[in-house]
């Protein structure tokens, strides 16, 4: 892996800190098995919205019968 400073003049300490971050991120990425599915975040789960977004009966109920983000 080659890393090149394109702009600026980093001090040796700044360069060492940047390389440490890159190495940690690379190690974390290689530790995750590539075939395993990633777990879904609970905030993006559509089932958590279903209970409170169901349309209530009334004259304007048709306007609330959509699924957000679809």
How do the helices and strands line up, and which of them pair or pack?
Blueprint: H1 12-31, H2 47-50
Order of helices and strands: HH
Rg of Cα set: 24 Å
- Structural class by SSE content: mainly alpha
Distance between the termini: 41 Å
How large is the share of residues in beta strands? under 5%
* Biggest sheet descriptor: none
Helix content: 25-40%
User: Number of helical segments?
Assistant: 2
Arithmetic mean pLDDT: 76
Model regions low in confidence, pLDDT < 50 over at least 5 residues = none
Shape: elongated
Total beta strands: 0
How would you describe this protein?
- The chain is mainly alpha-helical.
- Helices cover 34% and strands 0% of the residues.
- It is elongated and about 70 Å long.
Please outline what is shown here.
With 70 residues, the protein is mainly α. Helix content is 34%, strand content 0%.
Based on the model shown, name its key terms.
mainly alpha; 70 residues; elongated
């Amino acid at each position: 892996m080659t890393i090149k400073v394109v702009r600026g003049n980093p001090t040796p300490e700044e360069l060492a800190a940047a390389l440490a971050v890159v190495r940690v991120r690379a190690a974390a990425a290689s530790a995750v098995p590539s075939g395993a599915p990633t777990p879904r975040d609970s905030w993006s789960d559509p089932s958590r919205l279903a209970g409170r977004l169901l349309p209530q009966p009334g004259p304007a109920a048709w306007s609330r019968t959509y699924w957000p983000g679809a």
